[in-house]
Design goal:
Number of domains: 2
Radius of gyration: 25 Å
Largest sheet: 5 strands, mixed
Strand order of the largest sheet: 3-2-1-7-6
Oligomer: single chain
Number of helices: 13
CATH class of the largest domain: Alpha Beta
Order of helices and strands: EEEEEHEEHHHHEEEHEHEHHHHHH
Helix content: 25-40%
Structural class: alpha/beta
């Protein structure tokens, strides 16, 4: 091994510190790889070599041979992102004025290094239990395979409560404020922009929330507008875990009801209802309207049908933090924040959620149960 000493900068909670870092290069002719404090260079990429315990022992994580951040700094700011939705540019501005560091106002260098370090630190902590921490590229993104494995692990092992029999109903809804960058997204609702091009981002996130404690049991990104397929896939993913689940509340449940009745895999859910906020916009003949269907009103009496809206009042704050991130980083952090949210729910520390529920009013646009078919008028020439 060839050893080299390099002057480096370590950023911490007490300001900037100049240190000396040692790098090593393998002298084997078939290897010749260069090793940093917590990474190895391979094909122009820096692959992580550290475990969470290694980072704690070193006391820092390096995103480059010359740039590192202390473990306390990363732990503090990762939770600050979750709780206060603080962006990397805000951290840069605060750090610069607090410790008088020489980061120009026009330079985004520190913000990029900070964001890469936070992402790498979270990825090491979360992917180590899955033995995928060695696939992390420092300063780059996690692989789609690692993201998929993390998604599956959370939904099957982490998101479910300790007592699954308490989950007897769910509230489902989608939210568009927080969305992933996507060049191939479908047309968005509303007035199109003047330039005529499709907006280069997705359609937000879809969630299944337990109304008893506002715990998120499923989350899925929407590359297309909210539809029956997204709800169907979300339910099939977690339905086998909850044997006592027999009710679902959604603003447009009547539009999904024919699909549910035709599919044997959804027979477990016997009660399909509209939430109280949107119920006033549905017709009296709507099969999912709890105002006129006593069967549904009795089943969901005392159930918080606005659980998703309360969760989204918190979740929408991540728009500025995540909307400019790459798709992989965006998706990974959403899953991570949902995990932290569920931990806060368990510890009864979810004080950031809105506790007030709005009362419903008649909707301006018709729902699927209220659309009236209008007979087309025959042309005057055909009537003569």
């Amino acid at each position: 091994m060839q050893r080299h000493e390099i002057n480096a900068i370590l950023y911490g909670m007490n300001g900037m510190e100049r240190i000396i870092v040692q790098s090593f290069r393998c002298s084997s002719f078939g290897c010749r790889k260069t090793y940093g404090p917590n990474f190895v260079w391979d094909l122009s990429h820096k692959y992580n070599t550290a475990t969470p315990k290694n980072i704690e022992e070193i006391g820092a994580l390096f995103v480059g041979t010359k740039i590192g951040f202390t473990a306390d700094y990363l732990k503090y700011h990762s939770f600050l992102e979750f709780r206060a939705c603080v962006s990397a540019m805000a951290i840069k501005h605060t750090y610069q004025h607090t410790f008088n560091t020489a980061h120009g106002e026009q330079s985004n260098w520190f913000a990029k290094m900070h964001a890469s370090a936070i992402m790498s630190w979270i990825a090491v902590q979360e992917l180590y239990p899955l033995q995928l921490h060695l696939s992390i590229k420092i300063g780059d993104e996690i692989t789609p395979q690692a993201l998929q494995a993390y998604h599956k692990h959370l939904h099957l092992k982490v998101f479910p409560p300790k007592c699954k029999t308490t989950v007897k109903e769910l509230v489902a809804d989608g939210h568009q404020k927080v969305h992933i960058k996507c060049a191939n997204s479908r047309k968005h609702a509303g007035k199109p922009p003047k330039h005529g091009r499709i907006k280069p981002f997705g359609h937000g996130w879809f969630m299944l929330v337990h109304p008893r404690d506002l715990r998120i049991l499923a989350v899925r990104s929407m590359s297309v507008p909210e539809n029956n397929e997204i709800l169907y896939d979300s339910l099939l993913e977690i339905l086998p875990l909850y044997k006592h689940l027999d009710g679902l509340i959604m603003d447009r449940a009547c539009g999904f009801l024919p699909t549910a009745r035709a599919d044997k895999s959804l027979k477990q859910i016997k009660y399909w209802s509209i939430d109280g906020f949107h119920a006033k916009g549905h017709t009296k003949t709507c099969p999912c309207n709890p105002i006129y269907k006593k069967r549904l009103a009795t089943r969901f009496k005392g159930v918080n049908s606005s659980a998703c809206e309360q969760v989204f009042s918190w979740f929408r704050g991540y728009a500025r933090l995540l909307n400019e991130s790459s798709p992989m980083r965006h998706s990974f952090k959403v899953l991570y924040f949902v995990k932290l949210h569920n931990c806060a729910v368990e510890q009864k520390q979810s004080t950031y959620l809105n506790r007030y529920v709005r009362s419903g009013k008649k909707a301006k646009r018709p729902y699927s149960c209220g659309k009236k078919t209008v007979a087309k008028k025959r042309p005057a020439a055909a009537m003569s």
